[in-house]
Structures are given as structure tokens and as C-alpha cells.
């Protein structure tokens, strides 16, 4: 699984060379709606609740996915 | 116990965002998320639905949790960014401790007739039963007439928890190191039974003319578990596996253990074209040490095989055992694409995880961010599925007896004298007792009893857990976030999320666990102050303010932190915000133990007395200038308390059926009462302010201790309730003036209860307070203050009309109120960006409490104002 993922990342990195967006063409990417986390206030609260109830929620990389959870 | 709290994801996001800085553009993109000074205050509430107990209806309060979170970031010299988050969770309510065959009736509370039939009154998990089992292991119910009916159903076994509090602090510092953005962080999370401390570091750099960002992060944390087991569970809970980690404590046993979590992650963000980008992250984590949950039990059905069709089954409970290592691999994909209308965007995320416990999970989420003018509407929907851990079981069945008479290699029963357990005698088929040499002995002279042998652990699996969170299940959740951005950098956000779990939606051939299905709803409210955006708009908006008003406000900016209901006059329509906190501690002695025991309660005397108490109050103040002479204020509060008890010397015997929650420390917390106030500042008399507040009973007066020792915990003590429960009127009269560089003032305030009884049967005493103060500038930005306060508070009228354990003086209305004098010393600091911070220590000078009360040891007051 890990190696498949690494392969994917490598492929994506290779993809990087194929497209070029000039600085003056990046206005759309700079929209608030395009932010990496468009709801930064909500995300940690929601993730904490999922992590307390799901074993795989650690896949969001936002916590240890460990502990027994209080709920 | 809560989760491992480390959150390197946020730090990585911030770094990736920083690295993606787009030259020549308005920094309103992801970049701005991390680079501007900002402060956010959030409140969140999670409410679970009622769990099904199949044949009985539980009236246990479903689980609910309140979270208060303050977070922010500050940028130094454009090169260093400090981020912080402080949060506090308070949770209580019903929680599953195990699952068991329904035929064993494991939820055996005290039953009473409710309107909807038989009701379980409180949770009484009772994992100990004997019942018939079919040859194939299916539990049976005996019907009248001696026949049996198969009952293969499994049911959750529920217990309930008194309020518990978790606090967490996260700090991180980001900086530029050459072409790299680096960040280090630390996290501490603490609660009654769990302390976690973690460190993290991450680094990111952009390549390919900032179209590609690579990031790398590591984190490590250590958790210390100190879990006091439920004393009610001790009689039936087999703890033998963890014996070496258990110690006697507080009438129960304490499990002490540690765990370690390490994580490594690699991320890549790639711009695909002018409309879209993709984010890929790979993670690997390893947890080791004690990875179980000390409060969860596994039900084991001991059913030895026999020749008859029906076996005798005995249900017992064992503490769960999980492997001491868990390795997990994770993959996250995130694709964002701009939508062609109104600056919207669609985000699609997928996450996969696979771990050494055989749990695999997939989650897929869609988020549509749609700006609508100053509003942004963001609906989301998420699907999640997981495969169970290889050691998950609803309950275990084993073909052996829980206890049986030991036999030797010849199959003869072994008997021992009661006083000499090491001496073995063997019972022959004929019923004779033989010694080791084979000689017949006279059993009547030896006082023999059969030697009992426990179950053989080797016949059970090595690891087992009935925690339904590692079962096979799926879930769907969805909701939306609505935010409103104001021109001056203020953001208001509200969100809701509905979640539904179904056992049948799981991955793989997992064991059916539909019995554990539940729903919950999460609400979030947030307020964010963006200082960068504010500074820009402030240049335009505040340019025309009357300078006389600024001068007038100098009075308030030197106010001691403990003074409330005083407000600067702003331009009409202006919003301002404040935060006020109070931290109070009580301790010392109530008097001689014998006197307290005899006089502090009723005729039956007191058994316990409070040893210490702390109270924390956090209040948000939102202020709106309606007219030139009129302000409106909205003040929601969050309260939390701790109280420690001790047993009084020579205390009377327990009352029949008394709930003994003992000499430990107990916590409570929730949203407190909400005050709405109007402050009138007559234009002709600007030194005077008159305010009238109305306090709405949004706090709690029905918080209860958990059921314990088969008796109801009852209502928590008066001081542990987070609200008054009544509508209250809060008038104040304030006078402020200046003499040279000195500022001085006085305030008379009152709290009048508008109702005689709250829903729990009592009302808190009315209160009067007179406060006078003097302040003087120490530097251009710092002022010192001194304040003298005298408070009169009545005792409580009425009394609890529901069960309260009446354990000590704190449970009796006449031990409330009194007359108190305090001297406050404070500092007041003027901060940049129209902020003002004041801190004050109040030292009790004289106490004349009614009845028996802890001594007040002082109070910190903190007040922060932001004129927005």
C-alpha cells in the first residue's frame, strides 16, 4: 500500500513539470474558497469528534488516532 | 480519556500555504490563513442520540460535550509566526462499557414504571449472569412450560459518567530557514485520568516556481494513563491480566500505564492548472504501550460442552486486552477546483488507512464553498467505512467453565483442608478421599473443600475488545457552515453536522454490531478577529471619530479587571468585543471537624466536608452602540468547577442508601447563564453609567453525579451547578471621574432573583455589591489600580426538590452567602490595535460567611477589550 502511494506521489511530482501556470494566471487559485482548508475554525473541532468515534479517522493525519477516546 | 492530541496537520497546512505564497497577488488565499495576526473564539456542542437497549428504554441522559476554544496567531517581523490554541472540553452522559447477550439482561438498573413502559432508571451494568445456551452457543431464554427460545441478540451495556473536563494547549512557532518554512510545536492535554505531552516539527519548501510544495513532518507524544476503575464494576470485573499495573486507590483500583505515539508524514501540493490543485499526503504512525481502554470490558460466555442439548452458560466480564503496538499507514488525497460562478470552489477529499490490527478505512468527503456576497455557504457530506480490528468481538464464547473443581491426571477431584490449601486429597469415584500415598482418610476429621480452578486463559484469544469503535461499520454525515465576513476583518461562523453510524455499512465480513448504532449532532459557533484586515479598514473608518470620545474612554481603559457593566462610548453602530475571566479558589478549613459534623448539616450530621473548590468563569462580551448614549451588551458565559471532598473525623455512619462519591475531586462545567444588558450613559452627565441586565437561565441546575454502588448519584452540590436556574435582574450604577492623573470610581450593583424557585426547587440568594477604585498611570501604556469591594449575599431560599446525597455542609442552603470584603490590586495594559488588557488579584480581607463554608483564598480577574 505504502509503495503504491509513493509511486503515485512520484507520478504526481512528474506531472508538475507538465503544467505551468504563470503568476498572473493564479488569481483563481488565490480565492479564499480555494484555500487548503476552507473552514479552518471548524476542522479541528470536527476532526476531534470523528477521531473519538472512528478507528481510521487518523487517516486525516490530524491526530494520533490513538487513545481510547472519552466517548 | 480523550484522543492523542497532537495535530501536525494544521501546522503542515499553514506551512504549505505559506510556501504557496503567490507573488504579486492580494494575499487573500491560503497564504493569508497563516500569515496575519488573528484571534478566534469558538464554542462547540456535541449531542448524541439515545442508545437502544432493545427491550428496556434507558432514561440515562445521552452523552453531550461542550468545547470552548481560543486560538490565534501572531506574526513577528514577517519571519516568525506564533500559533496557539487553548481548549477545554466538558463531557458527561451515557457511555457503553461493553456489549453482551441480551439473554443475560446486562442492563439491570433499578426498574420503575415510566409513561412508555418499563424504564431503566440510571445505568446499572451487571455483567454476571447464568442462563441456558444451545449446543451451537446461541443464548436461550427459558419460556414457561420448560421450553427454550433462541435469543441471538446482543445489546450494549451502558454506564454513565459525571461531568469530566479535558484541557489542551497547543503552541507552535513557524519561521523561515533559507528557502524552507519550518515549524516546531508542542501540545499538552490533561484530564483526570490522562496526561498527554507531545512535540512536533515540520518543514516545507516550494519548488517549480511555487507550483509545487513539498512538506515533511514528524511528531511524538507520550500519554500517561491513571484510570480509577468503576468501583461498581470491581465485584464482577476480571482484572487478572492487568494485575501488575493495578494499585488500590480511593475505594477502587487504579490502572497506571503509558503509551507512546510517533508519526511521520510527507505531503505534496501541486497546482494542476489555473483552476485546480491537488494535495497528497502520506503518513505512517506507530503507537506502543497500553493502547486499550481501561473502562471497557469484554463479556465472556463460559459454556462448557456436555452431552445434553442445552449447556449452562455463565457470563463474566474481563478487562479488554489489545496488542501493545499498532502501526498505521495513511493516504490522503485532496482535490480542489474552482467553480465557474461567484468565486465558488469544490473540494473532494479521500482518506485511506490500514493498520496492523487489520482495521482498514475509507472516507470520502465533498465540500462546496460558495461565497454569496459577504456570506459564505459551505455544505459538506462525508462517507466513512471501516473494517473491524481482528480482535473485535460483540462478546466471546468459550467452551469451558468459569470455575470448576480441579482434577488430577487420573480425573479425580482435588480437595484441600480449609486451613491447609497446599495439602491435596483425591476423591475416588466411589466417594472416598485418598491422600498422596493412596491411603483412605477420614474426611470428616479434615474439614475438606473442593479445590477451585479458574478458567484456562490459553483457550481465549490473546487479544479481545468489544469497543464498537473498532468494529466494522460505516457512517454518513453532512451539514453546512455559514460564515459572514465583515469589512473590518471580523468573521462570524456557525456550523452544524449530523452524523449517523450503521453497523451494516461496514467493510468486510465483520461481526454484526447494529446494536451499537447511534447518531449525533455537532453545533459550532465561532468569532474570528483578523487584525491585518482590521488595520486596513480602520484607517478609513476611524479617521472621522471625535477625539473627545477617545479622551473620555481613557476612564474605562484604566478600569480594574473585575469591574463589569462599564463601557466606553463609541460611534453609533460600532461593535466591540470583550472577554472576561474569573478564577476563584477556596480552601482552608470550615472549622473543627466535630463542630462541622454536628452543626453543618441537619440532625443526622455531616460525613464529608469540602476540602477545596475552584471556579472558572469565561465570558464573551459583545457590545453594540445603539445610540450615542446607549449600549447593548450580550454576555454568554462558560463555567467550570472542581471540588475536592474529605471525610470528617468522627463522622456519623452513612445514611441508608447514601450515595458515597467519596473523598475524590469532582468536576462540572457547561454553558452558564447568559446576560443581556443595556448601558445608558447620559450625554449631559458622562461620568455616570446606569445599566440594567437580564440574566437568562441558560446554565444548568440539574447536573448529577453518576450512578454508583447501585444508588443514584443525585444532584451535584449547589456550587457545582453552572447556572442560577432563575431569571435574574442585574442593575448597576457607576460613577467615574479623574483628578489630575488619577482616575477613580465607584459602582453599586445588585443581583435580584425574579423567580422564587428554579426547576430544581431553589433560588440562589440576592446580592448587593459596592466597589470603589483608584488608578494611576505607571507608564504611557501601563496603569496600576487598587479596589475595595464589599459584597452581601443571601443564603439560598428553597431547597433541592430532587434527590441530593446531603453529604456535607455544601448541600444545605443555610451554608451559603454572607458578607465579604476584598482588596483588589490590578494592572491595566494598553495594547496595539485598540486592545486593552487588565489583570487583577482580589485578596479577601474579611469574611463573614453564613453557616459553614470554605475560606475564600482569592480571585484572579482578567479582562480584555477590543474595539473593533
Architecture overview:
The complex is a heterodimer of chains A (71) and B (868). Chain A has helices at residues 2-16, 42-51. With 71 residues, chain A is mainly alpha-helical. Chain A is flat and about 45 Å long. Chain A starts with a helix and ends in a 20-residue tail after the last helix. Chain B has six helices and 50 strands. A 16-stranded antiparallel beta barrel of chain B has the order 1-3-4-10-11-12-13-16-17-20-21-22-23-32-33-34. A twelve-stranded antiparallel β-barrel of chain B has the order 35-36-37-40-41-42-43-45-46-48-49-50. In chain B, strands 7, 14, 18, 19 and 24 form a five-stranded mixed β-sheet that branches. Chains A and B meet through helix 1 and helix 2 of A and helix 1, helix 2, strand 1, strand 3 and strand 4 of B.
Please write out the topology.
The complex is a heterodimer of chains A (71) and B (868).
Chain A: H1 2-16, H2 42-51
Chain B: H1 8-19, H2 30-35, E1 38-48, E2 57-58, E3 64-76, E4 80-101, E5 110-114, E6 117-121, E7 129-134, E8 140-142, E9 148-150, E10 154-177, E11 180-191, E12 194-207, E13 212-228, E14 237-238, E15 246-249, E16 252-273, E17 276-289, E18 297-302, E19 310-319, E20 325-338, E21 345-355, E22 360-372, E23 375-386, E24 396-398, E25 403-405, E26 413-417, E27 425-427, E28 433-434, E29 440-441, E30 448-450, E31 452-454, E32 473-485, E33 490-502, E34 519-530, H3 531-541, H4 547-552, H5 554-557, E35 575-587, H6 593-599, E36 608-627, E37 630-635, E38 637-647, E39 665-671, E40 674-680, E41 688-696, E42 728-739, E43 742-753, E44 762-763, E45 767-777, E46 782-793, E47 797-798, E48 818-831, E49 835-849, E50 855-867
Parallel strand pairs in B: 2-6, 14-19, 18-24
Antiparallel strand pairs in B: 1-3, 1-34, 3-4, 4-10, 5-6, 7-19, 8-9, 10-11, 11-12, 12-13, 13-16, 15-16, 16-17, 17-20, 18-19, 20-21, 21-22, 22-23, 23-32, 25-31, 26-27, 26-30, 27-28, 28-29, 32-33, 33-34, 35-36, 35-50, 36-37, 36-38, 37-40, 38-39, 40-41, 41-42, 42-43, 43-45, 44-47, 45-46, 46-48, 48-49, ...
